[in-house]
Amino acid sequence: MQISNLVDLLNIPVMAYGLKNDFQNNLFEGSQNLLLYADKLVEIKTICWFCNKKAIHNLRVNEYDEPVYEGEQIQIGGNETYVPVCRRHYHYPLLESMLDFEEDEEPDELEVDEQEESEE
Ligand SMILES: [Zn+2]
C-alpha cells in the first residue's frame, strides 16, 4: 500500500524526506513517488561546495577527490563521498581547489560563459 493511500484512507498526515536525485542526476525511486504524490513539497536548499550558487546536484568523489560519474546508484561502505554542487561545478568540479578554496577566488581553468557580464 502506498503512503498516499494511508494518508487518504486514515486521514493522517505523513511527512517524508529524501534526496531528489542521485550522483548521476537520476531521480531516486522513492523521490520520484514523493514528487508525484506529495500534497506539499518543501525544498531544503544548500549551497554549492565551490561557490555561492544553489546546489542542485550531488557529486560523488573517490578517495582521491576525483569526480565519479559511473557506478551503482547506492554504494554502501565505499570510499566515495558526496558534495553538494551547482550545475556548473557538477560538470567542472575543480576538485584540486576543494581543500584550499577561498570565497573570492575565481577558478582559472574554467571556461565561463561571459554573457552575464556583457556591457551595453
Ligand atoms: Zn558552484
Plain-language structure description:
- By secondary structure, the chain is α+β, with helices and mostly antiparallel strands.
- 18% of the residues lie in helices and 10% in strands.
- It has three helices and three strands, in the order H-H-E-E-E-H.
- A three-stranded antiparallel sheet has the order 2-1-3.
- The longest helix has 9 residues, at 29-37.
- The relative contact order is 0.15.
- Mean pLDDT is 81; it is low at 116-120.
- Bound molecules: zinc ion.
- Residues 48, 50-51, 53, 85-86, 88-89 line the site of zinc ion (ZN).
Summarize it.
The chain is α+β, with helices and mostly antiparallel strands and 120 residues long.
Features:
single chain; 120 residues; alpha+beta; 3-stranded antiparallel β-sheet; 18% helix; elongated; disordered C terminus; binds zinc ion
Question: What is the structural class?
Answer: alpha+beta
- What is the general shape? elongated
Query: What is the makeup of the main sheet?
Result: 3 strands, antiparallel
User: So how many helices?
Assistant: 3
Order of helices and strands: HHEEEH
Strand order of the largest sheet: 2-1-3
Portion in helices: 10-25%
Provide the list of bound ligands, each named once. zinc ion
Low-confidence stretches: 116-120
Strand content: 5-15%
Number of strands: 3
Through-space gap between termini: 59 Å
Kindly state the mean pLDDT as a whole number? 81
The radius of gyration is 18 Å
